[in-house]
Design a protein that fits this description.
Elements (H helix, E strand, L loop, with lengths): L2 E7 L3 H11 L6 E8 L2 H10 L4 E4 L8 H11 L4 E6 L4 H10 L3 E4 L4 H12 L4 E2 L24 H6 L3 H10 L5 H8 L3 H15 L4 H10 L4
Parallel strand pairs: 1-2, 1-3, 3-4, 4-5, 5-6
Helix pairs in contact: 2-3, 3-4, 7-9, 8-9
């Protein structure tokens, strides 16, 4: 039976232990679990130094999140099969992941048979989207701007901000004022002020002190 060197990237240790058991029953190939890591830096390090055939990864990783990580991995290895296995079913996340180079996208709520089907697809050079996973808004989809979860994890919080807003936030946490930030980013201080207001609105804070505290507590910088 062909051996497939497999890397698991997920912050949940118990989940990965369970995955190892499930993957041991995959009938087509022997999936050799090389390692289990929880950060994007570890994924990059292993793919840069070892021959990995299959990466099963969550989007919520320490360091760079999975959506940003996938295209970086594609520059390291064009051959590794990347299967996203996550709780996030936002069609925008699916689209960005697949556009970045993922081979498949599956939810943790799916069944073992769906996981095996996903593996069969990616090993046969076909992309895979799990049941009820959409790359475009499903029929009847409506955005409810008032609907908010009471508790949001770091991944969801981080994805609220644009790249420019992340740059501005990073400089705000360095105690730089609008003029200093404007000079560093080559934009006007009025534009910085607009970004600052948008960041605070998106993150639900009302002043700079709480913004900086929130950014550090949620590891946004």
């Amino acid at each position: 039976m062909l051996t497939v060197n497999t890397l698991l990237a997920d912050k949940q240790n118990l989940f990965c232990e369970g995955m190892k058991t499930i993957l041991s029953h995959y009938p087509s190939y022997e999936l050799n679990i090389v390692s289990h890591v929880d950060s994007s830096d570890q994924v990059i390090s292993i793919l840069s130094t070892m021959e990995i055939d299959l990466l099963i990864m969550d989007l919520n990783l320490a360091g760079v999140d999975g959506i940003e990580l996938i295209p970086k991995l594609r520059k390291i290895s064009k051959d590794v099969k990347i299967l996203v296995l996550t709780t996030y079913n936002d069609h925008n996340f699916v689209k960005e992941s697949m556009k970045g180079g993922a081979d498949g996208y599956l939810l943790k709520s799916h069944k073992r048979e769906d996981l095996f089907s996903a593996l069969n697809h990616v090993f046969n050079e076909r992309t895979y989207l799990g049941p009820d996973v959409h790359i475009t808004p499903p029929s009847g989809f409506k955005i409810n701007s008032k609907a908010k979860t009471k508790f949001e994890d770091r991944f969801l919080i981080k994805r609220k901000l644009t790249k420019r807003e992340h740059e501005v936030l990073s400089l705000i946490t360095q105690a730089k004022n609008n003029k200093e930030i404007a000079a560093e980013l080559f934009i006007s201080d009025q534009t910085v002020g607009v970004h600052r207001k948008n960041i605070m609105r998106k993150l639900g804070v009302r002043n700079t002190v709480n913004l900086i505290k929130f950014a550090f507590e949620n590891q946004l910088v």
